[in-house]
Amino acid sequence: MIVCSCNIVTRKDIEQVIIEFLDQDEWQLITPGKVFQAVSARGKCCGCFPGVIDIIVETTERYHSLMNSPAPKVVDLLARIADQRVRMENAKRRVASKRPSPQLT
Fold first, then answer.
1. d(CA 57, CA 74)
2. Cβ 65 vs Cβ 21: under 8 Å
3. What span, in angstroms and rounded, lies between the C-alpha atoms of 28 and 105?
């Protein structure tokens, strides 16, 4: 399934990159920017970033479940990922609030 239509990046591409990152360091914080850099793309409209964060969370949970990682560490990691999503949503709202409203005539 295509997740980013701007760069034609699929869910499978994203999951593969996440697993490669987790194999290198299972406790690192993976962000959409890091994923896109790994697939030689960059966020254009960034509308897919919330979905990418969801894929990061799902893939990370699945990875740690298979590795029998200690639950407290996994919860901390997922909380850090959730914080990234909140910060991204807040930034998106700030940008939207600064855009001029269309003039109604």
1. 10
2. no
3. 52
pLDDT computed for residue 101 by the predictor: 67
pLDDT, one tens digit for every residue, the chain (105 residues): 999 999 999 999 999 999 999 999 988 889 999 999 999 998 888 889 889 999 998 999 899 888 887 776 766 777 777 787 788 788 878 878 887 766 666
pTM of the model: 0.72
Whole-angstrom distance, CA of residue 45 vs CA of residue 39: 16
**Closest-CA residue to 17 (of 37, 43, 45, 46):** 37
The answer to whether the CB of 14 falls within 8 A of the CB of 3 is yes
- Dihedral in degrees, nearest 10, Cα atoms 58, 90, 35, 72: -40
Where b means 16+ CB within 10 Å and e means fewer, 31-66 reads bbeebbebbeeebeebebbeebbebbbebbeebbee
Domain boundaries, the chain: 2-96
